[in-house]
Amino acid sequence: MGKVRQMVAYARGRLGLAPPLLLDLEVGLGEVFLKDPQGLLALTRVGQMALEAVLRDYLSRVEWDERGFPMRFRPPVAGRVRSEQVVLDPQVAFGAPTVAGVKTWVPALRYDSGESLEALAADYGLPLEAVREAVIFEGTAA
Prior knowledge:
22% strand; alpha+beta; four-stranded antiparallel β-sheet; three-stranded antiparallel β-sheet
């Protein structure tokens, strides 16, 4: 609570508003940010301004529910900031990385054994790109 009080006091002084925690906050990467006219102000690191474009890329990996709680994570795959196919969802496979409900290690193991991406896509009823991302995510070149 001491850290929260410090953040509230700093935001109150910086913006001159009585209830700063009623404002639009951004949360990510273990930090709390407040929208400031100059950009995103890090409240957990009093006085630091965030590089908003970089932070947006990282936050785009998280999917939020209607209440604002994180519900799904899309990791970076094959040089992209956010995977379109691989997802970590605590309600699917206990949060293990999956593509359309199939754990990513399963097609990757079969690919390592010599099966083709096309055969795996047909077996699992997945788009070829989903199988390719699963294999790359697991560290196997495809």
